[in-house]
Amino acid sequence: MQTIASYWAALIIGLFLLLFTLDFLLVFVRKGIALGKELDRAIAAVADVQTQQTGGVTDLNQVAERVMTTDRLAHLWGEYIKTLHPQKDRDNLGMSYVKRWRATSLAGTFFTEQALVDSPLRAEYYKHVPGILTGIGIIGTFTGLIAGLLRFDVSSDPTLAEASLTQLLHAVSHAFIVSGTAIGLAMLFTGIEKRLMSARYRQVEKLQQGIDKLFATGAEEEYLERIVRASETSATQALQIKDSLVADLKQVLSEITNLQVEASARHSSMISVDVGRVSHSRPSRKAGFPLLLAERSLVPFPLHCTGLHPVAGPGFCPCSAET
Question: Which domain holds residue 305?
Fold first, then answer.
């Protein structure tokens, strides 16, 4: 019990180191090895699908069933296939079919290292574990030194002074042992973490390359070609429509002008005929007016008539005109 009480700080630090070691080995390393086997199976399945392609067409359902066997891979595959462009053609019967699938985005956009490695392994936490172990070792060193100095008894008795100095040296030595162990574990964990992560990253890169090989690129050029072809067709059709409209409008305007000219000539003839008919059927009042005046001048005026007419002038009796 006295030994435990003397080295309680070293025991606590050692317990923490043991817990971190077990967590690192049983969680991070074990999951990393399992993830490596999973990625190896996916890479091999992609290679098999590529060799079994018929006519250059990749069966998307086959890829989903044979390669994307985990929930994480299936989710990423479901997002990736939304970017695939089907290039279609027609057979002898006029039926449309998918000639090939074109990729509009790289597989690395979806099958990322963050999604396949960092997130499942909680790499953001475990890459800081070596630093945590180093900090624990430093804390253990200072704790052991402080505990040894507190128990050091300065005495005039050489025997007691020697015993106190021995305890101080033991406490310091145990503190440095714990600190060295923590630093050594930190270095070991750093090497294991970097080696494991780099191996998983290489596997993800191989998986990305395998998926990219399943689908041809160049959908952007095809889209651009279709847009240019549609623009040229629209311009040709617009020019044809313009020429047709100009010709039709010219013909319509010519017909309308001819009809207006004919109608105007016909109306002018009708007006001339009507005017001539009226002029022959009704004599002019100006021509018959002198004869009427001469006849009226032979008729004596009544006594009460002045012989003046406000319009006809002298010699025209308004009274006789009334009769």
Answer: 299-323
